[in-house]
């Protein structure tokens, strides 16, 4: 793969990249850049975390990167997930790894590494905590509180003292893991920018590159993001075929409207990157079957009314179920996975 091909593939992951020229330089100078992504084991996994992460990780691996996935168990405890019970958090983390294995994340060549934050921090505490303390020392409390969005909190929320640690620790993770690229969602952008500001403060030249991927909206009207407290707002990785069909049938999908249309976003960010095409089955009187090779083609038909939500939705359900079936099969047939799913539920 040429340098330009590697750059284009990595860049295609991000809705935003800070900074593109730094990414080019990194790829020129380092054969295997380190990319970092992290997640809190905090409950069920929705399709953006499951499938979009697999798509992004597979692109990074294809482009020659090493991907470190930080299983942020201590962070879930700080954020009071699973009632702060670290044993339960650990079970959820193992369950989520099983989902990524089943859906097709490329784990064969050893370029993807799952790291448990509690294990790694405890084994190298002498490196980690001085870094956290230095980041905390160099920032005022309002600056840290502006990062609270990374925990799914707002500055107006009444935060525990533990939650104030969280941004300082997440910022430290980037340097602790020697990450060249931070590949997280747009909702994590503020803490990644904090890491670049920290580089200025300590006069460090090589700043982490921020590659922020798009956040899928919820399936209902006006839902900017998926909500774990509202199961109808997202497709979950272990949803049965009937669940997927019902959720998509009820999803917000106004005719001829492309902006803020969650069904079209699912097609753009999940279906095309996964299947590279989208087939709509229709009766001959409704125009017959239609295979789309690009999202732009589909948008053009949808805008002018050539493609109706009544035909688009069943096609979307079918395409999603094709992606999720191997996950269902894995959790039905593999004893370890079956046990984990039972314990999580």
From TrEMBL:
EC number(s) per UniProt? 6.1.1.1
Mention one GO molecular function.
Answer: tyrosine-tRNA ligase activity
Gene3D superfamilies per the UniProt record, alphabetical: HUPs
User: What keywords appear on the UniProt entry?
Assistant: Aminoacyl-tRNA synthetase, ATP-binding, Cytoplasm, Ligase, Nucleotide-binding, Protein biosynthesis
Q: Which GO terms describe its cellular component?
A: cytosol
Which reaction(s) does the protein catalyse, per the Swiss-Prot or TrEMBL entry?
tRNA(Tyr) + L-tyrosine + ATP = L-tyrosyl-tRNA(Tyr) + AMP + diphosphate + H(+)
Pfam families, per database record: tRNA-synt_1b
Q: Which domain of life is it from?
A: Eukaryota
In which compartments does the protein localize? Cytoplasm, Cytosol
Q: What biological process terms from GO does the record include?
A: tyrosyl-tRNA aminoacylation
EC supergroup of this enzyme: ligase
Summary of the function given for this chain in its UniProt record? Catalyzes the attachment of tyrosine to tRNA(Tyr) in a two-step reaction: tyrosine is first activated by ATP to form Tyr-AMP and then transferred to the acceptor end of tRNA(Tyr).
Question: Which PANTHER family does this one have?
Answer: TYROSINE--TRNA LIGASE, CYTOPLASMIC (PTHR46264:SF4), TYROSINE-TRNA LIGASE (PTHR46264)
Assigned protein family? Belongs to the class-I aminoacyl-tRNA synthetase family.
Name of the featured protein: tyrosine--tRNA ligase
Which organism's genome codes for this protein? Genlisea aurea
């Amino acid at each position: 793969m040429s340098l330009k091909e590697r750059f284009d593939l990595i860049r295609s992951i991000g809705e935003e990249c800070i900074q593109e020229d730094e990414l080019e330089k990194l790829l020129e100078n380092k054969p295997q850049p380190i990319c970092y992504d992290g997640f809190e084991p905090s409950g069920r996994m929705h399709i953006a975390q499951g499938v979009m992460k697999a798509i992004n990780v597979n692109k990074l691996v294809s482009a020659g990167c090493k991907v470190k996935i930080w299983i942020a168990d201590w962070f879930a405890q700080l954020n009071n997930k699973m009632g702060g019970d670290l044993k339960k958090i650990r079970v959820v983390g193992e369950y989520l790894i099983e989902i990524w294995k089943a859906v097709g994340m490329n784990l064969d060549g050893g370029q993807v590494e799952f790291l448990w934050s509690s294990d790694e921090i405890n084994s190298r505490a002498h490196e980690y905590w001085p870094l956290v303390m230095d980041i905390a020392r160099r920032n005022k409390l309002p600056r840290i509180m502006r990062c609270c969005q990374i925990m799914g909190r707002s500055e107006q929320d009444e935060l525990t003292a533990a939650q104030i640690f969280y941004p300082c620790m997440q910022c430290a993770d980037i340097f602790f893991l020697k990450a060249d690229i931070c590949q997280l969602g747009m909702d994590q952008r503020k803490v990644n920018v904090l890491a670049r500001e920290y580089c200025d403060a300590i006069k460090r030249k090589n700043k982490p590159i921020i590659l922020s991927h798009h956040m899928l909206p919820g399936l209902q009207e006006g839902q900017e993001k998926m909500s774990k407290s509202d199961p109808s707002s997202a497709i979950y990785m272990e949803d049965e075929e009937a669940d997927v069909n019902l959720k998509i049938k009820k999803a917000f999908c106004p005719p001829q409207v492309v902006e803020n249309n969650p069904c079209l976003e699912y097609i753009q960010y999940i279906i095309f990157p996964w299947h590279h095409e989208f087939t709509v089955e229709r009766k001959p009187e409704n125009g017959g079957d239609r295979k789309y090779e690009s999202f732009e083609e589909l948008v053009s038909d949808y805008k002018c009314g050539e493609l109706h939500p009544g035909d688009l939705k069943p096609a979307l359900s079918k395409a999603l179920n094709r992606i999720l079936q191997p996950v269902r099969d894995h959790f039905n047939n593999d004893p370890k996975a079956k046990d984990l799913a039972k314990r999580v539920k």
